[in-house]
């Protein structure tokens, strides 16, 4: 079964007046994983789709959704998948890709059939991002050993972390989709500091591996008009091009960043120093 919902884009001046419920309704994606279901959220930010697939008793087939007006989901789209659960496999037009936890798969435009399944009785959780595509590139699995790994942060500032570039243009050819995975080390809680915006790209954050009973406060909004959303493990949040995207947890955690837009330049960021945030 495929479930879907739609999110409009928000003007930054309008967002300044949003209360807690409005912020959560516009930007937070609370439920990504439901047994035997593919859950998708179509956003008007660069027409980005965020979703999750949780095969349980049966394989799940990716189906098109009404907003796409296409026979197949990937007729005019590319897709990135990162497994955040037990061992699973994705079959793309007959080709099988096994994904362990924190391994990724890029699927190019015009693929017809995509199936999600568990392996060896484990429960896979497939986190999905998708963006419009103008050209077909080859499907490619990216294991953690294939990632471009960068160590960032400092224990002094509680933000020591390991960034794994997975589906980025230095590793996989894509039209505009980029995805990676960042792991906060034990005792560290802050991500993406100093905060930044990039008006050329939107972004989505997915938080996972957060200890039960703990929370992450995701900070968003214009640098001089920030807001926050408290989140749990296995939830995602949309980040408009005008918004910062940073978070701090009550324990360490991992998160997946995905983005699409005008360019593929990972370093294209407009930074805001911590003491300039309001």
What does this structure look like?
This protein is mostly beta strands. Helix content is 4%, strand content 45%. The protein has one domain (2-276): Sandwich (Jelly Rolls). It has a 7-stranded mixed sheet, with no helix packed on it. It has a 7-stranded antiparallel sheet with strand order 2-21-18-23-15-14-13. The N and C termini lie far apart (43 Å).
Strand content: 35-45%
Number of helices: 2
Give the CA-based shape: globular
Helix share bin:
under 10%
Output mean pLDDT: 96
CATH overall fold name: Jelly Rolls
Going by helix content, strand content and strand pairing, the class is mainly beta
Q: What is the CATH superfamily classification?
A: Jelly Rolls
Number of domain modules: 1
Gyration radius, to the nearest Å? 18 Å
CATH architecture: Sandwich
H/E element order = EHHEEEEEEEEEEEEEEEEEEEEEEE
Report on the biggest sheet: 7 strands, mixed
Cofactor: Zn(2+)
Pathway: Glycan metabolism; pectin degradation; 2-dehydro-3-deoxy-D-gluconate from pectin: step 4/5
Function: Catalyzes the isomerization of 5-dehydro-4-deoxy-D-glucuronate to 3-deoxy-D-glycero-2,5-hexodiulosonate.
Pfam family, one: KduI
